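Hi R.,

As promised on Friday, here is the backbone we talked about, encoded as structure tokens. Could you run it through your design pipeline when you get a chance and send me back a sequence?
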């Protein structure tokens, strides 16, 4: 199908209305009464990309509404640079032809495009009442992504850009908090959050006492590139880090990925395989991968049964040995939850805690929702899941 042909058809319709038409004689087509010499080029529009495409798999409004219908919350990580092993980090390729543009920097053309896109997404969400402030499921949003990793490359153009991004986002008035992952100096009121495999150990915490400890990306495995072996991360290791993060004040953990899916079409970035995070708790096809899925489900249940002390209690940290420590959260009523941590990966140890003693497997955390009985140990993946 030719685009010029389409235009001609459109013009014919207009022409009829205005009493003009496309006709011909023995010499040429005649448009608006004039003979025309035309050149035409074919374009199959489904083979090219429209500038904004929210159709089909990209229908974000439909997806967020489905999240709400399932009784879940959403954390909307807008980017617009998302990395995510997506081709060009999610940017459209035409962006690099904008005169004078420098991505992710204090650069006017880039900032204008970033603001346009972010505003568009926010307005789409607002007009469908999808923010929690409007009764919708979105409780958090993210601007930029792991910017601190590259910030130094932009020299003096980096810090003002990060600051601008935060202010621009906050200015969009969504009624829910914004966060920046891996951006230790995220300006108030934006929350700096942790990404990584070991946020239980590596996260220094939020940059202000009135910000919560949030873990925006917990890498359940690692994406695969062609020629590499699949990366596996054991459920015991994931559970250990999640339990440690919660023991150390964490109150939000997002698994990256929980379900990776497929890189359709040309969306995969260089060398990344078409199956994305197939080793996640839900595999490429959305099927449950055991024992990972089941072990995390039991971990979540154990942590949830500690909710009141974690959310309202006072935290204290006790040394239980050279590589062992206990974290407790205690309410004024006496209600108490404990996490007993053994960081020694070589041996099982017996540690005293309160009026009892506990056996801790190597590299494990025991969760005691009443500070007495062990409800879960991160190193013990239940046999029924392994089968
Ligand atoms: C948890 O938060 C409290 C209050 O902000 C702080 O005193 C404590 O040091 C934090 N715990 C850890 C392990 O950082
Ligand atoms: C190791 C790993 O999986 N890192 C991922 C962290 O999350 C970003 C997306 O925001 C991915 O691009 C990284 O590859």
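Update: got your reply. Pasting your designed sequence below so it's all in one thread:
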């Amino acid at each position: 199908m030719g685009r010029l042909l389409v235009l001609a058809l459109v013009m014919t319709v207009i022409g009829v209305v205005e009493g003009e038409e496309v006709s011909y004689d023995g010499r040429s087509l005649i448009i608006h009464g004039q003979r025309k010499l035309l050149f035409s080029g074919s374009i199959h529009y489904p083979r090219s990309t429209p500038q904004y495409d929210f159709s089909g798999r990209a229908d974000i409004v439909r997806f967020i509404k489905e999240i709400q219908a399932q009784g879940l919350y959403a954390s909307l990580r807008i980017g617009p640079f998302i990395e995510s092993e997506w081709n060009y980090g999610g940017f459209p390729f035409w962006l690099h032809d904008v005169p004078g543009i420098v991505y992710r920097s204090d650069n006017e053309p880039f900032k204008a495009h970033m603001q346009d896109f972010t505003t568009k997404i926010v307005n789409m969400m607002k007009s469908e009442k999808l923010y929690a402030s409007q009764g919708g499921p979105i409780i958090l949003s993210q601007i930029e992504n792991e910017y601190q990793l590259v910030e130094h490359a932009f020299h003096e153009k980096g810090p003002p850009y990060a600051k601008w991004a935060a202010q621009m986002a906050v200015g969009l008035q969504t009624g829910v908090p914004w966060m920046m992952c891996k951006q230790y100096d995220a300006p108030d009121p934006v929350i700096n959050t942790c990404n990584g495999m070991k946020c239980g150990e590596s996260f220094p915490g939020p940059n202000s006492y009135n910000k919560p400890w949030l873990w925006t990306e917990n890498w359940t495995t690692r994406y695969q590139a062609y020629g590499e072996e699949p990366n596996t991360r054991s459920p015991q290791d994931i559970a250990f880090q999640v339990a440690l993060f919660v023991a150390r004040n964490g109150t939000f953990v997002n698994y990256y990925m929980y379900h990776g899916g497929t890189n359709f079409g040309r969306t995969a970035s260089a060398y990344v395989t078409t199956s994305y995070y197939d080793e996640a708790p839900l595999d490429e096809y959305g099927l449950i991968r055991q024992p990972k899925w089941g072990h995390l489900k039991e971990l979540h249940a154990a942590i949830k049964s500690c909710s009141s002390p974690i959310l309202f209690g006072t935290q204290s940290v006790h040394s239980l040995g050279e590589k062992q420590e206990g974290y407790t959260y205690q309410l004024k009523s006496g209600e108490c939850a404990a996490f007993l941590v053994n960081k020694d990966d070589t041996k099982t140890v017996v540690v005293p805690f309160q009026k009892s003693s506990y056996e801790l497997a190597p590299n494990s955390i025991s969760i005691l929702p009443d500070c007495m009985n062990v409800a879960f140990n991160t190193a013990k993946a239940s046999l029924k899941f392994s089968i």
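One thing I noticed while checking it: DSSP finds ten helices and 16 strands in the chain.

Thanks again,
M.
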